[in-house]
Design brief:
Order of helices and strands: EEEEEEEEEEH
Shape: globular
Radius of gyration: 13 Å
Helix content: under 10%
Strand order of the largest sheet: 1-10-9-4-3-2
Distance between the termini: 14 Å
Number of strands: 10
């Protein structure tokens, strides 16, 4: 199935090592920018107790949940050991500084 890209803004809209929240029909999505300008989009809910990951501290390709410190790998959308758990990951593309997220594809993966 073809991606359904949704434009969410530009790289400069997200602070370095920060996040932006976007609402979707399937819940809130957190879009992160790393120190090397890589962009990741994951469900804005820690698999541990539902903490808002968009409010966490970004380091390398991980984000620490502000509630209990679980570190979620942004590339895999999984908790880093020794913790366990996963959340939905959304495909992202950046073209000329414009960020687009494929919200539909993530929903299909989550339903499988």
């Amino acid at each position: 199935m073809n991606p359904a890209w949704t434009r969410i803004g530009t790289i400069s809209d997200i602070p370095v090592r920060g996040a932006r929240r976007i609402a979707s029909a399937h819940g809130t999505v957190a879009v992160f920018r790393t120190s090397d300008d890589r962009i990741f989009a994951i469900e804005d809910r820690c698999p541990h107790r539902g903490g808002p990951l968009s409010q966490g501290i970004v380091h390398d390709t991980g984000v620490a949940c502000p509630l209990h410190g679980w570190v979620i790998d942004l590339e895999r959308a999984e908790a880093r050991a020794p913790d366990q758990g996963c959340i939905r990951r959304f495909d992202v593309r950046v073209t000329d500084g414009v960020i687009e997220v494929d919200l539909r594809a993530a929903c299909e993966r989550a339903a499988e």
